[in-house]
Amino acid sequence: MSARDGDAPRDEPVHGDHSYDELYRDTADSGGPPWDIGGPQPALAAVLDHVKGPKVLDIGCGTGDLAIALARRGHRVTAVDISRVAIDLARAKAAREGLPVHFEVQDATDLSLPSAPFDSVFDSGLLHSLHRNGAALDRYLASLPGLAAPGATVFVLAVSPEAGHGWGLTAQELRASFAGPEWTGTDVTKIDVVAETGGPTLHLAGHLLRTTRARDA
Questions:
Q1: Which of 74, 216, 32, 60 is nearest to 130 (CA)?
Q2: 13 contacts: CB under 8 Å, gap ≥ 6
Q3: DSSP state of 61
Q4: Helix, strand, or coil here: 192?
Q5: Using CA atoms, how far apart are residues 77 and 104, in angstroms rounded to an integer?
């Protein structure tokens, strides 16, 4: 999503593992970065009871709240993030609940996951953080068909430019990123993306994309 900066999100996402590690450390005593809201984004929480399984991938998992929520429902979850600090926090959370989530420190634009493909794939705020880096975005999007099994569902939550922070993804850009023949039944709905900044909870204009990996692509 975006980094903590006073009482409002910064103008654009942070990039690079060291930047994210520093961000998680710097905000540890104040509730974490804005996207660390203590649970899955509400728009994703609303779909968790309808997720295809058993194998689920959470890309850009942060401190693991979405991955843990999926594991509570009996899914076999693999979750990756570029920040080692975030992954250490996620592992500790899962261990406290006795949940066997497989967390890994990996760059989403260069994933190596022998357990692929997955029955469901989640991206909660990662795609919109890559959209200003065309090469990284292209690598990430090119990898997704290999991560999703035929018939798998992919969910992408993204902030919209309508949030007014100078970045984000439009519904048209999201649909274009998941066009045929690899993807089918792509749907994009308007949602609120929640952010916590130490003051009032922010509700940012956003989108939730849901698409299916084509069975015959």
A1: 60
A2: 1, 2, 3, 128, 129, 167
A3: -
A4: strand
A5: 11
> pLDDT digits over 126-164, tens only?
999 998 888 999 999 999 999 999 999 999 999 999 999
Question: For residue 196, how many other CB atoms are within 10 A of its CB?
Answer: 18
Specify the 3-state DSSP secondary structure of 7: coil
pTM of the predicted model, to two decimals? 0.90
Q: pLDDT (tens digit, 9 = 90+) per residue, 170-181?
A: 999 999 999 999
Could you give the CA distance from residue 107 to residue 121 in angstroms, rounded to a whole number?
16
Q: Name every residue whose Cβ is closer than 8 Å to that of residue 159 and which is 6 or more positions away in sequence.
A: 1, 2, 125, 128, 165, 167, 168, 169, 193, 204, 205, 206
Query: Which domains occur in the chain, in start order?
Result: 4-213 (3.40.50.150)
Main-chain phi, psi angles of 182, to 5 degrees: -70, -30
Q: CA 85, CA 204: separation in Å to the nearest integer?
A: 26
